[in-house]
Amino acid sequence: MEKMKAVVFYGPRDMRFEEVERPVPKEGEVCIKVKYASICGSDIEEYKIGSDRALPPLIFGHEFSGEIVEVGQGVSKERIGQRVSVNPILYCGKCFYCKKGLINLCNNRRSVGRTLGVEKKRCDGGFAEYVCVPEFSVVPLKEGVTFEEGALLEPLAVCYCAAKAVSFEKGENVLVIGSGPIGLMIIQFLKIFGSGKIVATDIMDFRLDAAKACGAHEVVNVKSESIEKALEYTGGIGYDRVIVTAGAPGVINDSIKLVRNGGSIILVSLIREEVSINPVSIVGRQLTVYGSYMFTTEMQDVMDYLADKRLDVRNIITSTYNLSETPEVFKDLASGNSKDIKVLLKID
Fold first, then answer.
1. Residue 140 counted as domain residue
2. In this structure, are residues 267 and 290 in contact, taking their beta carbons and an 8 Å threshold?
3. Structural domain tally of the chain?
4. N- or C-end of the chain: fewer Cβ atoms within 10 A?
5. In what side-by-side order are the strands of the sheet with 198-202?
6. CA neighbours within 13 Å on the CB side: how many for 93?
7. Nearest to 30 by CA among 63, 64, 78
8. Cα–Cα distance, 343 to 164 (Å, whole number)
9. The CATH number of the domain where 264 resides is what?
10. CA 124/CA 132 separation, integer angstroms
């Protein structure tokens, strides 16, 4: 059996760069030589605390790009050499939700780089030299889209859906709570879509500087100022939409305070704690609370923006590291002291 280099998660704060068996594509699968992988905020959370979504041992990595080098039975050999990214949602295609095109809600789905699904079956991801995935999950890269950009197609699709969620209209005032990678990509789409005033919050000035570079008109550092200062930028009326990408439980009640009557709150972050809210503040003000989870086919839409140069992700990619450096990179990112925003791993 051939070997390859990979980064394996063995439990909270235990990630190792080691040699493992190289996967062989099964029927209906392709084998991808990974070129670039991106570290997601959810990867960092699993690294810090773990959950049944990432049962060890497991190779993380659901944001990546590469080149098809081998195919399994039933897959055309013309696929070999194709530059691709991957939709990590491995849906069943048969259930109620799949038949409606809502593959992100499939109860039987598995996910690349996670242990989702009823069986919690291991599904290794792209923090490795090679990865095998079903052919249906492959997203070919258009000419002009780089491997670096291809590694960000997945999170960009998440942000694209969140930015246009509910009943988006041009000229709307939007507050983005949290200016990490997801928040910053959402801000870029809001600008492209024609939002009115875009305001961003965070606790770190370097992220707020990035928010301005991405298109935010105003920013609020909620570590040094009350988040309610953001209301000043709407004349006290509140925001048409509040998009929540931060993971602190208190942001949900913050969003209720900051949205206007009849406005919408879009929850993107996976907040893992119970939150107490007063339903009267939702019903009595006719608010919409919407969970924006993943995407369906929007990786193709995002590809068009990248290929046409309407979207620039260079200002959020702050560092690129070799695969062998990944365990130390995770330690740094989990410490809370890192100045990185979006980190890529280069797999040679």
1. yes
2. yes
3. 2
4. N
5. 218-221, 198-202, 174-177, 239-244, 259-267, 288-291
6. 4
7. 78
8. 25
9. 3.40.50.720
10. 8
